[in-house]
């Protein structure tokens, strides 16, 4: 387990664990959670209760990983792309992000969204759908969805993620609890 000193400016709530070889920037708050070897967690980021940051994942500044979030890791093969969550993103409770997916700056991933390299991320906000794989555009608001697919045995629903809008001031209010707690120096 990594030792965190008061001068590091990191707050760790037991039984949170950050392994040796992980990097925690100043202002990081680790609620009871786990950060694996090689992971990088940016300034002022909150890793909430029972969230996991996998090996070599890159988490930006001012990110909130809500309760139970699973961020996948990668150690092999050496050229494999890690999961990247860019600055200011919010990842909702029980969401899972794996296989080198990149979550763009200030994107909002809703609760229970599952993102992998093969799960389609479908922008349904315009007159024609736009499909992404392995990435979420900056500022996108993403919710879980399902898409019908025909198989020999019948029609079934496959998981997808739906971009339903862009981050707005009202979204910021819903995701700003950390800022308020820090501004008024309220312990969490």
Overview of the molecule:
The protein has 188 residues and is mainly β. It has a single domain, classed as UDP N-Acetylglucosamine Acyltransferase, domain 1, CATH 2.160.10.10. It is 7% helix and 37% strand. The protein has helices spanning 169-174, 177-183, and strands at residues 11-12, 17-18, 23-24, 29-30, 34-35, 40-41, 46-47, 52-53, 58-59, 64-65, 70-71, 84-85, 90-91, 96-97, 102-103, 108-109, 114-115, 120-123, 130-133, 135-136, 140-151, 154-166. The strands form 3 sheets. A 10-stranded mixed sheet has the order 1-4-7-10-13-16-21-22-18-19, with no helix packed on it. Strands 2-5-8-11-14-17 form a 6-stranded parallel sheet, with no helix packed on it. Strands 3-6-9-12-15-20 form a 6-stranded parallel sheet, with no helix packed on it. The longest helix is centred in the C-terminal third of the chain and has 7 residues, at 177-183. The mean pLDDT is 92.
């Amino acid at each position: 387990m990594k030792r965190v000193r008061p001068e590091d400016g990191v707050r760790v709530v037991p039984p949170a664990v950050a392994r040796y070889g992980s990097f925690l920037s100043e202002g990081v708050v680790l609620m009871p959670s786990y950060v694996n070897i090689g992971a990088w967690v940016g300034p002022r980021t909150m890793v909430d209760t029972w969230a996991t940051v996998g090996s070599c994942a890159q988490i930006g500044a001012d990110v909130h990983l809500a309760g139970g979030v699973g961020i996948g890791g990668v150690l092999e093969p050496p050229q494999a792309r890690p999961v990247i969550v860019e600055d200011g993103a919010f990842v909702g409770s029980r969401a899972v992000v794996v296989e080198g997916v990149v979550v763009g700056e200030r994107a909002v991933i809703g609760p229970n969204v599952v993102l992998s390299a093969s799960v389609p991320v479908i922008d349904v906000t315009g007159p024609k759908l736009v499909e992404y794989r392995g990435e979420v555009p900056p500022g996108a608001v993403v919710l879980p969805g399902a898409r019908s697919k025909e198989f020999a045995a019948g029609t079934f629903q496959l998981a997808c993620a739906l971009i339903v809008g862009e981050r707005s001031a009202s979204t910021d209010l819903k995701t700003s609890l950390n800022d308020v707690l820090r501004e008024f120096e309220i312990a969490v």
